[in-house]
Amino acid sequence: MKIMTDKKLFSILKKIKMNYAKQHIQTDRAADDNWPLLKSSLFYNKSDENYCMYISMQAIWLVGKGRQQQELIFCEKDQIDELFESKINKLTPFVLIEDTKKQVKPIIDNQLMKYELVGIKLQNEKSILIISSSDLLIFLRYIDHSPKMVES
Q1: Which H/E stretch holds residue 59?
Q2: Top-level CATH class of 2-150?
Q3: How far is CA 30 from CA 14, 23, 35, 62, 110, in A?
Q4: What does the pLDDT look like over 102-127, one tens digit per residue?
Q5: pLDDT of residue 57
Q6: What span, in angstroms and rounded, lies between the C-alpha atoms of 64 and 72?
Q7: Rounded to two decimals, what is the model's pTM?
Q8: How much is the average pLDDT of 68-89?
Q9: CA-based angle 33:91:85, to the nearest 5?
């Protein structure tokens, strides 16, 4: 299923005529580039019984946010696979393609908008997709996952 997510992604990017660059690169060398490699974390929100995906340049940037954090439960790998009904190799904004029930609300750290380009790991484990931060927002809206922007 992970390769299928990548195929769906490239099909959508082509359909909406979005510019991107696919790079075969070691992820440990991605930090050498001028764009950040995005990180995502999935949480279950007890108060509204929905899921939210935090997208940032930090692993879990939500830590220490007080009352809001008390309402959130970090989702483990098996919970993520169950939610998306497939084996998810890398949790990224692109896996929201598989969220056909629209159960996940993306929440984006507004700091990433300072960068013209961002890197996002693909499911095939060997590549990173480079996309503009504004195009990421357009992509998410296109797949009916309009993000909420928050201060980090």
Answers
A1: none
A2: alpha beta
A3: 25, 10, 8, 23, 21
A4: 999 999 999 999 999 999 999 887 88
A5: 87
A6: 12
A7: 0.86
A8: 86
A9: 155
Domain boundaries, the chain: 2-150
Torsion angle of the four alpha carbons 44, 49, 51, 55, in this order, in degrees rounded to the nearest 10: -80
Give one DSSP letter per residue of 118-146, joined into a string: EEEE-TTSSEEEEEEHHHHHHHHHHTT-P
Query: What span, in angstroms and rounded, lies between the C-alpha atoms of 21 and 114?
Result: 19
CA 21, distance to chain mean position in Å, is: 17
Q: 37 has which bridge partners? A: 119
Residue 60 has a CB neighbour count (10 Å cut-off) of 14
Residue listed under structure tokens 């190799």: 89
Kindly give, in sequence order, each residue whose CB lies less than 8 Å from that of residue 22, ignoring residues fewer than 6 positions away.
122, 127, 128, 129, 130
